[in-house]
């Protein structure tokens, strides 16, 4: 499993939609917002956590279709389906590698974009923490969409369509927790713990659903 993790981590970085492209797209989405809303620093500070989260969500969609497509193209997907290890465990390792190569760089880049949005230190820290907890859920959800679309020649758009509605709860509670950290009447822990629960739920359901979809695709 360690070999698979290192292999998929290299592929996730090298393949189209890797860490660099994801971070650049993330920065582009956040950077264009001030041009649309104007140079009001107070407004940018208020909407900053939501904009950073939306940018991270859209960036996380990049490259999801390549999670299993590369394995299908080089024939290694057939070997993965025939191995003795549980397929869901293999998918879990692939999800971890994908998040390390694509999701974690977004989390690391978020403080810089928070400064760009004139966010306070507390808001930046809360947003970064919620992204650290919430972005793995996007990967687990995306694994199911990627498995469904793996046999399609142009499945990237389908993956985004399948993943985006399921990712809305992650976005809602991630933004809610980020705002709660800077708004005294609103407690931080309830939405944050719900976000943790969502990630744990999809960490179980996502690999199982993706494994079933891959089995059906092979059949």
Automatic annotation (TrEMBL):
It is found in: Cell inner membrane. Its main location: membrane. One of its GO terms (molecular function) is heme transmembrane transporter activity. One of its GO terms (biological process) is cytochrome c biosynthetic process. GO terms for cellular component: plasma membrane. It comes from the Bacteria. Pfam families: CcmB. Keywords: Cell inner membrane, Cell membrane, Cytochrome c-type biogenesis, Membrane, Transmembrane, Transmembrane helix, Transport. It is a multi-pass membrane protein. InterPro entries: Cyt_c_biogenesis_CcmB, Cyt_c_CcmB_bac. The chain crosses the membrane at residues 12-37, 43-64, 85-108, 128-150, 157-180, 192-214. Required for the export of heme to the periplasm for the biogenesis of c-type cytochromes. PANTHER family: CYTOCHROME C BIOGENESIS B-RELATED, HEME EXPORTER PROTEIN B. This is Heme exporter protein B. It comes from Aliirhizobium cellulosilyticum.
């Amino acid at each position: 499993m360690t070999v698979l993790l290192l292999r998929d981590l290299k592929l996730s970085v090298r393949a189209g939609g890797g860490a660099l492209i994801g971070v650049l797209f993330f920065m582009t989405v956040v950077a264009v917002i001030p041009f649309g809303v104007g140079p009001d620093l107070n407004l940018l500070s208020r909407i900053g956590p939501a904009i950073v989260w939306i940018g991270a969500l859209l960036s996380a969609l990049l490259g999801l279709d390549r999670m299993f497509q590369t394995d299908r193209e080089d024939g290694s997907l057939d070997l993965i389906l025939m191995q003795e290890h549980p397929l869901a465990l293999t998918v879990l390792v692939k999800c971890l590698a994908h998040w390390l190569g694509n999701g974690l760089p977004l989390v690391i880049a978020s403080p810089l974009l928070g400064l760009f949005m004139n966010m306070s230190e507390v808001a930046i820290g809360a947003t970064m923490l919620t992204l650290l907890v919430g972005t793995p859920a996007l990967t687990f959800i995306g694994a199911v969409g990627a498995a469904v679309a793996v046999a399609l020649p142009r499945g990237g758009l389908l993956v985004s369509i399948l993943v985006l509605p399921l990712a809305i709860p992650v976005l809602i509670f991630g933004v809610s927790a980020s705002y709660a950290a800077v708004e005294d009447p609103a407690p931080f822990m309830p939405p944050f713990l719900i976000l943790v629960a969502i990630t744990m739920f999809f960490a179980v359901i996502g690999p199982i659903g993706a494994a079933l979809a891959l089995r059906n695709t092979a059949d």
